[in-house]
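Inputs:
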Amino acid sequence: MGKAHSRALSALASLDVPLRPSLVSISGRTAEPLERARSQWGWAEAVTDWRDQVADDRVRLFDNAGPNAVHSEPTIAAARNGKHVLCEKPLATTASEAHSMWSEAEQAGVVHMTGFNYRFVPAVRLAREVLESGDLGEVVHFRARYLQSWGWDADEALWRCAPAQAGTGVIGDLGAHIVDLARYLVGELAVVSASLRTIVPERRVEDHFVATVEFENGVLGTLEASRVARGRANQNTFEINGSEGSLSFDAERLNELQLSDTKHFRRVLTTEPEHPFMRFWWPPGHIVGWGDTFTNELAHLLEAVAGEHAVAPHGATFEDGYRCAEVCDAIVRSAADGTRKSIDYRQKPLG
Amino acid sequence: MGKAHSRALSALASLDVPLRPSLVSISGRTAEPLERARSQWGWAEAVTDWRDQVADDRVRLFDNAGPNAVHSEPTIAAARNGKHVLCEKPLATTASEAHSMWSEAEQAGVVHMTGFNYRFVPAVRLAREVLESGDLGEVVHFRARYLQSWGWDADEALWRCAPAQAGTGVIGDLGAHIVDLARYLVGELAVVSASLRTIVPERRVEDHFVATVEFENGVLGTLEASRVARGRANQNTFEINGSEGSLSFDAERLNELQLSDTKHFRRVLTTEPEHPFMRFWWPPGHIVGWGDTFTNELAHLLEAVAGEHAVAPHGATFEDGYRCAEVCDAIVRSAADGTRKSIDYRQKPLG
Amino acid sequence: MGKAHSRALSALASLDVPLRPSLVSISGRTAEPLERARSQWGWAEAVTDWRDQVADDRVRLFDNAGPNAVHSEPTIAAARNGKHVLCEKPLATTASEAHSMWSEAEQAGVVHMTGFNYRFVPAVRLAREVLESGDLGEVVHFRARYLQSWGWDADEALWRCAPAQAGTGVIGDLGAHIVDLARYLVGELAVVSASLRTIVPERRVEDHFVATVEFENGVLGTLEASRVARGRANQNTFEINGSEGSLSFDAERLNELQLSDTKHFRRVLTTEPEHPFMRFWWPPGHIVGWGDTFTNELAHLLEAVAGEHAVAPHGATFEDGYRCAEVCDAIVRSAADGTRKSIDYRQKPLG
Amino acid sequence: MGKAHSRALSALASLDVPLRPSLVSISGRTAEPLERARSQWGWAEAVTDWRDQVADDRVRLFDNAGPNAVHSEPTIAAARNGKHVLCEKPLATTASEAHSMWSEAEQAGVVHMTGFNYRFVPAVRLAREVLESGDLGEVVHFRARYLQSWGWDADEALWRCAPAQAGTGVIGDLGAHIVDLARYLVGELAVVSASLRTIVPERRVEDHFVATVEFENGVLGTLEASRVARGRANQNTFEINGSEGSLSFDAERLNELQLSDTKHFRRVLTTEPEHPFMRFWWPPGHIVGWGDTFTNELAHLLEAVAGEHAVAPHGATFEDGYRCAEVCDAIVRSAADGTRKSIDYRQKPLG
């Protein structure tokens, strides 16, 4: 994540955005790999205590790409010091922690964004625009799954497999992405019924879950995520069926949106000049990569900081990060006792 | 279904099977369309009362392709009269009715088969063989969905939308197929948690359901079926992930099985001479159609009647029809009260 | 081919066609396999001399599915005796022989058809209809290739590899199909420039050719066929680009036509009731097989015999068989001396 | 091209390469857009005469991304001044001009590279490695086409459509790419037979060509390129068939290589850590974009400048640029008189 964010920040230097980032300072716990990262990715200085950055007046944007367990404290501290904040997903290890982050950022009056980068895939943004246009009619079904396979061979020491650092396993890691896409594309989630498994016991965290969901608008859907699905390297895929047409997406073919009328799907290669974000990129048919979605995301954030638009609705705010966390918590609770759980967003909106 | 079965029976005449069918008699309620069907599909005679067929000594195989509500009575009567019986799916409108059919057929000592024709798709049979070979390791995930879209425009008078004739809607129609495939490929189902919708109210029966399932062997899975998924004409699709590889299938590309090692999927075009059932068909690359799966199914049944092998495990018996019905009933019950349901197969195996 | 034609003739018995075929007599050279074929495929009698059939008053349609070298003599004899004639492709081993067949059939006043079954694939007929509609604008490019791979492992004794029986190798076998499709879809061919290879020397006939072509309407195209393309079982594929849109087809996915507007391709699953030939077949999404294209072809022929329409333009007449043979001859001549060859159709139309 | 090169140079700053580029100076003809480019893409200064750069001692690498007609003079001048040179493809507007560039660069002893960036697509490099491994056996067929569709709507003033600036149209633009891939993957080309068209007359240069080719090793192939193929945004695709297997690639799915054994193709998603160039990029399944291929290309060039390896065989030298130009010239000559042309590489290798 450090690499992806750092490169995207560098790439912004040659994009038409209202603010140009300057890479002031990078932090990390261990001096030696930190210095390597600093030098490699072009940061001016490196510090081993994030408090130095929070106290640093030159820092205007605090970008937290660390493990989940160190999301809330530094991010809240930075917001309190008036810095705009970007935090990787999942926003926190629990909904209540995420709620605090949202609450603090709002009170501080800073711009806040949760790093759901898939919202910045041109095909995903196009999906949202198509849904808003009404061309697909009324949405009736949603299904999403996010399958990877590295879990079979993962290093046990990886922080993503450590409950203390990651909170949950696949739920917060991959599940959070598809929960956010569900909310972004179809609407707020109301009810969830889930089961989970830890298939590779050494992993210590769940590596598979399945769920059925109901949206507040009545739509039924399914969610599934796995780290142990052989043959699937990064299949973040969803399909939405409406009364007049459907759409589907697969991150392994990131530049394509499948879009149907009542009968037939067409493959929209989202590389035309008029497609979302493509003003930053290449001629028709020349695809963007996964790393470029971070550039799109950061461009959106800089525009928000410059006052050109709000982070929402196309970027995920800390409120979105919190709401996603409520759904993830409900998945865990439902799996524990086998009953449907309403998601009540107990901590009500602030405003 | 009458057309598909009739043509398959005719096609059998030129296949290398141990028994050659003779099309003795077709029955139906209304004389005029019945006579047209008789003449068109090559049946020797037509009768408006199935009891005439049940009493007809020339009839050795009773093939019930009528609406769900008229599955049990004629089929049981035929079995009692010593006729081998083939009945379309779902076997009955309730599990208890299906259990009676199984019980009666067993007591009569006749060969019995439920018309789950997808077991006779070469790619599906190959999937089973691959799973049995152990090449995919231990199964960890299963997901299936069966999506059609005709429900938006269906004639309200259609028997498939009438509770009295169909029992359930999409559950017994499309859901039964994927429940049977789940059982055929992965094993017995133990627990289900489901929700359903009637999206087009005029339909009177549910046209969409989603479910999570647990198999007796611990595998988690998802099931979904819809008649109102725009852009999907007949997407009967499943994917199975194992510890060493995965496979997936889509009936819209009936002659293909996607088969992965730990990393990459390859498209197996199941038209090589060594592929299941292809001894009946064409040179490599020359595909079979949906209708041909009924020919494969009936060939399997005739071989069973001739004593060459049992209907099980590759054909679905009435026991399979009954067990599928228990799962369908559990889907309905779970959707009604929102709790997980164990499937207890209360009516125990007969023998 | 005997199997495919026999089964299609049987299948016609249950289709809505104006004439019902009766399988009078099958001929072959060797008594024992002939009798097996007769019994298996449901022919009333078998004869070892085709002259018996030509003299048989009961025979109204003479269907020649034998090796290329025995196409012309029996077919001409049958036509002279007033029988309607269907002959497999390539119509003959040379253009001049094909011209004689056309000429004789015309003089006899019988219905004549060359067995280019790909014209009876729903997606191919739809391609023609789309082109005629003008939706794609003016055609500018055509490319087709027909790749198989059995040539690596073929039995050397196979007639398809024997110059005496087959004439050419891959040119007459697979090349003829794509030449016919080129003519059916884009128009008459004017110029060809080709090269060929015999990659497996034991084959004795060429097993690969490539060609560039010009149509009379000025369109440029490419043709290629091979029997030794590993991984390609039956890839008969073409693409046509017009000024307003494009289409493409691949026989390995026989039920799909890819159809574009100026930007994006959509996958048309040609299984809707309104699609060509689907009145004979199944509900939406339930695909037809390769064998079913022969049923479509024979239905078309029977309708022509019954006077409902002419064989042309949707079926290939003997004129089409002849014109295709001229192109195949030109491919051979061009490959021999390395120059472009005009195709002059020296033998002018008869009428 | 300026944008793609500039961004790739910036991206190199955070890659593990032996030399870090510093963006000294950008040149262009018109001051105002030049200054915008300079500022946007992060160049230290801008000059309106390339001679200033050629004379600038700080410049060690001269990267020519201008129109074809201004490739040779500045590049030769830079090489003579001891600068390493990278020049976009096609290397020059004629083979003889390209030969001079190669000859001068060799005499100057500088590192020289032609910008065939598709060699730096991970899937293309993997294709080369698979071919070298012998897994596909002996190559028997090659086919490539490069289809775009912008030609229908192009601004007539575009330099790519002006003979004086571009030399040829689609031949040097898209054709050069597939000629280079043919040479990189299969071997030297010996004979070509081609036809061309100017379909949109306002374009003034040819916008479509087709060709058959023979390689020195005897393999036959086809080449085609078009700027007016509706529905194809950037379909740079090739397929190679060998005696033991095949491979195919399509730039619209840049991160995939289709790889077959004797029967079935598997989709290799070239995003595993061990895949070519992926040490620079992301986790499995997280794709790279078209722009990233320039980063790979420039990394390769910097490694060559640092003495880690030669540009060849994986990068294209000016010799490769020259040889490609000979093939392009032969395509033009063959199309002009309709005969096969041998490509004699009259200007022999220098060393």
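The first strand of chain B starts at residue 25 and ends at 27. Flag for discussion at group meeting.
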